[in-house]
Amino acid sequence: MASGKQTPRQKMINLMYLVFIAMMALNMSKEVLSAFGLMNEKFEAANTTATANNKNLFAALAAKADENPAQYKIPYDKAKEIKAVSDKFYTELEATKTLILDSNGIVPENGKLPYETMDKGAGLDETWFSGDGYSEKGQAFINAIEAYKAGMRKAIGDDKKLATVLQEVDSKFDISDVKDGEGITKKYLDYHYKGFPSIASLTKISAMENDVRKIEQDAFSAFMGNTAAAAASMTNYQAIVIMDKSAFFAGEPVTGRVVLGRYDESTVPTSVVVNGNKVKIDKGEAIFKFAAGNVGDHKIGGQFTFMEDGKAINIPINGNYVVVPKPNSANISADKMNTVYRGVQNPMTISFAGVSNDKVTASAPGLSKSGNGYVWDVTTIQGNQATVNVTAVLPDGTKVTDQKTFNVRGIPAPVAKVRGSVNSAKGSKADLANSPVQVAFPDFVYDVNTKVTGFELFVPGQPAIVVNGDRMTDQAKKAIATAQKGDKITINNVKTTLDGAPGYRMPGSSPFIWEVN
């Protein structure tokens, strides 16, 4: 258009074209600058939201650490390190944004940056670069990035579950040299910032701030999630057998459940109460100890208390156990000697293994309760055998019965007793005449109280004399007086009545021989 000889009109037209093209380029540049500005606004708004969200996440982790230190203290300590590293670098990025504006003489207008005029970046170039390398301030910015990366590595450590967070740190903040489109290797700041409009550099720093907050959020979320995942890991679960009761009888079906229960040392409750008493926690277990109590079924109750989101969460404890009698003696019996006696109160111990006494009842003619046991009066029972029937109510409410048959015998015949001797004795006629006649039961297991009601007296050379009562009558004394030294006087058929059972007929005694000396 500018070559050759042109008319003034043609030159004017060409000039108009040039002006038009320049105006189009100028308008496009303003649109791009405005686009960068709008993008920067979006980054800054997102950064404000991310900062607030991270603050809430950090506070939640701190609360968890306070409620359950065993599970959350270590993640919280790491989170504190990450927060300190992130906040420090974020502050340095904010200072860099201020540097970009100040170095290029950019002043906000009515609180808003003049994006369309932020097409120059010479101020930042002069601040960060010196010759072909970095200036002191440029190197300081690179050092700040490196310090941030090193701080994050130290805080995260060798936690493999946060490896992706470290990968993101290395990827987002890679400050290696870069090859441009023409294959020329340039330093990180040279490639990304040198010669760029100030609005573009400002937006890149805002994007870098967003990366810091995003990585911080990922770390906090990972700490919360990994801790919960570790606690919920199947390696912390055990199969727990829960029996419907802790003791079963032979022939009874065994019933219960098998559940999965978490068992780990990091889940520490605020308190554990069992049967009204606080118990201690040792390696994830609540250790309790209390007296077994009486024979029978007993309940175990209480609760675990955890703190969650500042509130006490109670988990009830419900269980039971059965107390059975402690075996402190053998059950030994002679099968043919299960005998009870007429005329006496036969003491009986009746129980049912594994069942408390209040759940046991026994019945038989003449059987009655006496203290913690029973007494059995079989005086009126006809025949030579009698049976005791026992019913017990088991802990599950079912009833079981049993019975035992005993031999019924009368009280054995007594032996006559005079002056402390049984069967026979030597003495004077006077001693015999003035002594009462008694009976004894030397081989009987019961103490029997009797009253002598009469006996027969035989003196050599005299007729037999029947005596009523337990003492010698005048007739008996006269007969005894006729005895000679060496004579043997016989007391026979001593008759007695039984105290407490006047209707019971006692057998006669064996004879007693008194030798006169």
TrEMBL record:
Domain spans labelled Gliding motility-associated protein GldM N-terminal: 31-225
Residue ranges occupied by any Gliding motility-associated protein GldM first immunoglobulin-like domain in the UniProt entry: 229-325
Domain Gliding motility-associated protein GldM C-terminal: 412-505
Occurrences of domain Gliding motility-associated protein GldM second immunoglobulin-like (ranges): 329-409
InterPro entries on file: GldM_Ig-like-1 (IPR048405), GldM_Ig-like-2 (IPR048406), Motility-assoc_prot_GldM (IPR019859), Motility-assoc_prot_GldM_C (IPR022719), Motility-assoc_prot_GldM_N (IPR022720)
Name of this protein: Gliding motility protein GldM
